[in-house]
Automatic annotation (TrEMBL):
One of its GO terms (molecular function) is BMP binding. Its main location: secreted. Keywords: Developmental protein, Glycoprotein, Repeat, Secreted, Signal. It comes from the Eukaryota. This is CRDL1 protein. GO terms for biological process: cell differentiation; negative regulation of BMP signaling pathway. Pfam families: CHRDL_1_2_C (PF19548).
Amino acid sequence: EEVPSQTFDNKDYFCGKETFPVYESVFTEEGETIRKIAVETEKPPQIEIHVWTIRKGILRHFYVEKVSKREFEELPYFKQITRTTLSQWKIFSEGEAQISQMCESRVCRTELEDLVKVLYLEKSEKGHC
């Protein structure tokens, strides 16, 4: 018996939850690393970019900017790294706020790396959602 294929308006789903593309851009200039993590949202249709400025492993500056999809397409260096759910993005944003305070005075390389890993969805076995 054939199982009918499901289409979700070209959107990817994870355990029944809609997923959104996540992009990353990392570049170094004048001894600072600028790391940007961006997520594309449908409502409103925009890109939320989280910008970290890291100098010698210490998070020097952190801010969030929102741009239109058209503006985002013109930005250099971004590549898609994964897709994530809104709930995972919320965990990422909340963790980021904690880390930005915690890492003002000490090196936080591993904390930042671990935070980005939150966005990657575990491949689930059917029935384990």
